[in-house]
User: Fold these one by one.
Assistant:
Number 1:
Amino acid sequence: MKRFLPLVIIVAVLIVAVVATWLLLRPARTDQSSTNTSSSEGPSGAEPPHIRGNPNAKVTLEEFGDFECPVCGTYAVEVKKIEAEFGDRLRVVFREYPLYPTPHKHALIAAQAAEAAGLQGRFWEMHDKLYENQKAWSEATDVMPMFIDYARQIGLDTDRFGRELNGEIVAARVFQDGRRVHALGVTGTPSFFVDGKALDAASFSPDGLRALLNQALRGNSSP
């Protein structure tokens, strides 16, 4: 055990440094939808991104979300409805934007749990579990037993899940999404971009999001 101790310390320091840097770079945030820009320029975020739907769809819906944000939980249901309605014409990309440590004390570890699940090819299954059970775990003191149980339910290797949740790959992915958040000036969750155009506060509603998607589809239609 002693011979592995230096390596463990190095990994732990790296994770702390990455998360600390991300926290320093983040803009002021709220758990209400809000964006300051309609540009898609800037860092690409974690690669490969988490995509649900047709990867070759003409229109991309990019969401910046926090698993502990109640509004995000509500919109997770709405986005699933939208996915069903638009079918192969749409792909959805999810970006991590944990509002940590305030107002959401478990937001960062929830993001890590989703990313750790993603390393076993189960990001979206954990995404759905976290939102479906948001009220239960967000009120818990110790969320790890609950997250490990969710991992078991979706068929993950729970030992690997526990190790990778605190690993450097997960930390780096959350950090890269944080760089994209910072570059785009995103200040609240959930925030949505459709082909790089932000859903603004005046239009923020499920129907407003549908309207923006339809507008993008018309713009991408063949003459």
Note: The chain has nine helices and five strands.
Number 2:
Amino acid sequence: MVGAWPLLAVLVVQAALSLRLVRADTAFEDEATYLWAGHLQWAHWLHGTPIPPFPAYFSGAPVLYPPLGALADSIGGLAAARILSLAFMLGATVLVWGTAGRLHGRRAAFFAAALFAVAGPTLHLGAFATYDALSVLLIALAAWFVVRAGERREGTGWMAAAGVTLAVANAAAYSSALFDLVVLALAVLTALPAGGRVAARRCVVLLIVLATLLTAGSLAGGSSYLTGIKQTTLARVAGGDSPLSVLTHAWSWIGLVTILAVCAVIISWASREGWARTSLLAVLAAAAVLGPIEQAHLHTLASLNKHVGLGIWFAAIAAGYAVNRFIAAAPAGRNQALTQIACVVALAFPITLGASQARTFSTDWPNASSFLAIFRPLAGHSTGHLLVEDAAIARYYLPSGSQWQRWSSTRNIVLPSGASTGGPGSAAGVTGAGNAGVFAEFITRGYFSFVALNFTDTTALDRQIAADLRHSRHYHIVDVVPYGIEIPPLGQGTYVIWRYEPR
């Protein structure tokens, strides 16, 4: 395969499959939260507007991706913010092409790029306005830097660049730190042919730059950032999903690439290519399971389809090597050409599978259009406080969302000062349900002008709040709004809206 035309073809297919998802659904809660926070961050920078303590509960630095996403959102709404993520993921595909090409040749680069580009999680992140696509791009760039240094004896500049990029990636998404060791291993293994001292020196430079920047960033951010890192990453509360279910779901999304990556390790070992090459392929293959194993340990399926995206990037490089060796094993000439064509045609399977999975990922939450249409005038014509179960969606879409002190969720209550109360206990993490007793107290006081519950995320608390509202003489149901799609036998979800009407 000559030139960059094969890469261009891969990028076109990837872009087309992700673009069809850009308007597949209304914003997911995470998308709404980060874009809304980005707009508030800009208002804070430009006008000194007070903002919530985002660093204390965000799983990435709120000053990095959210403002970038908000800029795109200001230009073209949610679609533009999602297209920004597509640009990040296309960049990651270019980097997997470049990295695999340097390690294993142009043909391996094509198949590595193709397998990564059409994977379901990749296509989904290319139409999902969160920090995940940015973190994939930055980790990929850091890996390219260390591989770019190659066997040359002087690679200090490349290692410094990789350290800076890793630090920014870790700040953008704290969970990406899991892959720092993979990049570090690549730096050592690709430098070994130049000598052990060269490899050790590169390792030290990379670690010093990374550790210095992360330490400086933590000190500059202060205690709120340290709290956010602890609650969302280091001491994240475990969920209720079984490890087997986590691994089973992950396997259905990344199984093909993982099998090919493992085959690459076996081929290299059987061919006696040297322990450095085989170890490098083993590291790349192992990266595929880092995310699933971590989430299996935490017993949670939440965001699993996003967190496997980084592992796929590394494993695809090994998978490309395996396909390349399979083609090279065919007799030179016509037979090898036919084998190569057959492998290209076989990509129809991962393309079809990835497109189907990505569609499911991108429509796996209720459409909020009907609820927003009803709640918009209620929130807009009121100046009181609002309690909404999934407040992030309404805050993002409605103009009154900029008045963040008015909005509370069933996670916590926001006071007029901007401080919070009624949040989850420490054992529930930052996503647990709020304190039912505190909510009852505020309902008794008539603190909320409107209350909207959908009885899904915090079901037990919702039922208690609904009971408190029914016992009150001042709260009355004003609307029951269908939302989402019909899910037999559960039926269609509904938002129940109460209004405070003092007598």
Note: Residues 425-429 have pLDDT under 50 and may be disordered.
Number 3:
Amino acid sequence: MIPIPPSLAREFDPVTELARALARELAISALLGVLVKTRATEPQKEMTSLAQKRANVAGAFALKGTVRGKRLLLVDDLYDSGATLDEAARVLTRGGATGLVVLTLTKTIHTTD
């Protein structure tokens, strides 16, 4: 279980807390702080095109730990365009993750170019 890091630093991060609770219920490890933000990004919901969303998160994640050989459940709260999840998946796959499943709580209804 690995959460998407938040766009903004905050005291309570719902995605991390969701990942922690799910991991506990499923009796699996939560890899907190392994996938990290390398720079600040704007909230994806403020972007209007897929190109903007992809550019916003390009290179925004790195690994601070190992995922080599692990099958992961990547958790986020919202699926918008998929740009954030695609970028995180790219980093995790390059880091050696052998399997990746994505879980989000909800999906937006607007579309992007």
Note: The radius of gyration is 14 Å.
Number 4:
Amino acid sequence: MKKIRKGDEVIVITGKSKGKTGQVLRVVDSEKVLVAGVNVVKKHEKPNPGKGQVGGVVDKTMPIHISNIAIYNPESKKADRVGFKIEDGKKVRILKSTGKLVD
């Protein structure tokens, strides 16, 4: 079971986007995730008339390493660590500081 999943509210703890929060859009691979509004770069794209794309400079969200983000705790408004606990025979994720369920 992964500690960070699609749909989780996360906060960036280091890097150029430090302090920004966003929702995980996609888990790219085992070490990188896409977070909405975080690590946005300018990308120069060529026009492609076959696909109906116009060229120019566009904003694109790039993947961020999973070690640079943490689960956002809305109660304390800070980053929090994730732990695991067995409840009713199922493994669930909990916040380390409060012990409440993440899901």
Note: The mean pLDDT is 94.
